[in-house]
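Reviewers of the previous submission asked for a worked example of the structure-prediction workflow described in the proposal, so we include one complete record here. The input consisted solely of the amino acid sequence. No template or homolog information was supplied to the procedure at any stage.
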Amino acid sequence: MKPQRIIVLTAAIAALSLIPAAFPGRGRSATAALFAQSPPPSGPVDPAALPAHDNHEGLLIAADPYTDPERSKQTFGKNDPAKGGVLPIDVYFRNDTDQAIRVDFNTIRLEIAPPGEDHQKVEALTVNEVAVMVAHPRGPSDPSATRKRIPAPIPMPKHDKAEEKAAAALRPFAFDSDVLPPRSTLHGFFFFDFGHDVSDVRFAELYIPDVIVVTGNKLLMYFDVPLQAAKK
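From that input alone, the workflow returned the following structure tokens.
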């Protein structure tokens, strides 16, 4: 049974795009990133049919992690986040209510709890952070900058053309609104730094704590989507 709260999330792929950061500031207990608006897969996807989902209070959130490198490459091409150790997760939001819902993308994260190991909290990467990891899969060009696994901030090289090009290619995938219209389905990608090892995905849950109904500013219960249920 779920405790007391909920939040809103980030990502959008299909025709509608959504989600700028309406909730300012983002914490960082680890590394991960959000994106949206990429070309849809062959045929529409029913979010309720995806094994990894959570559904209550009229909102369904489903997740489809791209753990297969070939699948990720086919979707993102030369700007494939996987080559930088980043896991793309296609996230669906289906609002079955007659009210607009707002999601705080800044608080969405993965909760990873492998048996016998410390609990990890992995936050979504920004577009620029993903671009750094795509442009510099083995680390930034500055030899004085190092990149560790989770949790650690991503070093941001300045005026790096490869990074700027990757960011420009990825930026159109980002949401431009944080509101889910009534009776709508939207989806897009979140990206998380897994350091080229996605084996812990089976121990991960996508946690969305801050979701509110715009009218009345009602806070929903949190959502958590167990990724171990996903087959891909």
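The longest strand covers residues 86-95. We consider this example representative of the routine output the project will generate in years two and three.
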